[in-house]
Give the backbone structure.
Amino acid sequence: MKQSEMYIHLNGLKIYAFHGVLPQENKVGAEFTLNLRLKTDFSRASQTDDLNYTLNYAEVFQVVKEEMQVPSRLLEHVVQRIAERLFRDFPTLTEVKIALFKQNPPMGADCRETGVESTYTKN
């Protein structure tokens, strides 16, 4: 049996941060939700039951949390930064898919969330 297309998912991560174009968004902040899909080869971890051969979810979350604390105007910029940092800190990653949503955006409409999604591949 051969494993292929291995992904680690972290879905529904909730982080309070200060991203947005409007001045009030940078002062008051908002709740954001992130979904991550991380492509990496964890076949050795699945055979050995050894964390050293896969990604540590807590370490991934810490990177995301640190990048989310850097204020940005655009969510597009935030996901780009997160992807760059994940590739830098976790060299075994070959693809990162990120969906980032702002809860209750201040846009004058009844809207639960707005967001962006992007997939990045290692060069």
